[in-house]
Amino acid sequence: MTEQKQPRVISGPLSTDDIAVARRLVERAERVDGVPPLAEQARLAIESGADLHLRSEHGYANVIAARDGGAAMVEAVIDPDHRGRGEGRALVDAALTAAQAVPGTEPPQVWAHGDLPAAAAVATALGLERARELLQLRRPVAAPLPDLPQRDDVVVRTYAGPADDAEILRVNNDAFSWHPEQGGWTPAEIADRTGADWFDPAGVFLAFDAADPDTLLGFHWTKIHPATDDAPPLGEVYIVGVDSAAQGRGLGALLTLAGLHYMAALTPGGPGRDEAGLDEVELYVEGDNTAALNTYSKLGFTRYTADIAYRRQ
To answer: What are the Cα distances from residue 273, in Å, to 85, 142, 221?
Structure first.
């Protein structure tokens, strides 16, 4: 094994050159592995939002502190042409060590997207244990869907603009108060997503109580991943959130179904879509969320892959 240089820890913003290198690493790794090496939050944090960045000769990692306690999150990527030489192990080890200085009430965790054998080997070599499993489920767009129920107690409409943002933020932070990534959003998180190239207001579904039309009960953001040279476009059940005060009214299932019908009806050749349209829809769900897994199973979703969070034993 070649002796590895100690990764460089960067506590401030990355330079323009470092940002460009990190982006190229992410793009190369995704082309080779077939899965993104960093989650959306970690990709956005390349430019802003990371508490720490690390650069090795052929790799990049960042550390993001947990909101309201919990575990700081580490994500890392190594150039596919330079794997198997110990650099990934050294980078992850250094990132987990550096993450101990980042606020958090639990030991730092490192994500491995796609549960790839190389990542599992690094985890084994470092003596890491599995702490969390995030499942990716998929369903064919052509698979039959139940009809969207008509309800007198709920009004469902699509996103009307920034005037909806405050209620979306309120419901999101209530519904995901327990969630280490999705909880604790600020207006900046909403702005990042509504300003993204993939954002389509017609694909955001909002449910209001018919008796109180100004109060949001729940929402479903859909997302369309555009086609690449290696993969067709892919739909996503991006976020489904329901106010805790509105639980038990079947809103999660209603909103999920509304989004699935929308994605099934998308016109081929539209924004983010090629002439073949969408073949599949994906979603992510915690591996121990039995109720959600049952709901999604009834809608035709099956396991596709998994992302694993590891931590030191």
So the answer is: 39, 16, 17
